[in-house]
Input
Amino acid sequence: QVQLVESGGGLVQPGGSLLLSCAASGSIFRAIAMAWYRQAPGKQRELVAVIQNGVTTNYADAVKGRFTISRDNGKNTVYLQMNSLKPEDTAVYSCNVVIGRLSYWGQGTQVTVSS
Output
């Protein structure tokens, strides 16, 4: 199995930036999908960004142009660069990786955007 551990969350002011990292205990280069989700209090979990088959990227409309998803196969790590952060970006961000028939989740990292 694969374990995923997120890091990089914290408190940031509006307009600031954060880099989230999702480190995998095993290889993820064959992953069907690598994604970041988020869930804010009182809201459903939503897909933020995804890499499909290691090539194609897609973003939620709310973050398009501000967030960038990427991966480093050598480090078995997925990243989410978050720029121009807004208070509405506040949520728990979780990493998801699909390898074959299995879907793996990290425990999440809290991102709080507030002045």
Remarks:
- The longest strand covers residues 91-99.
- The chain has a mean pLDDT of 96.
- The radius of gyration is 13 Å.
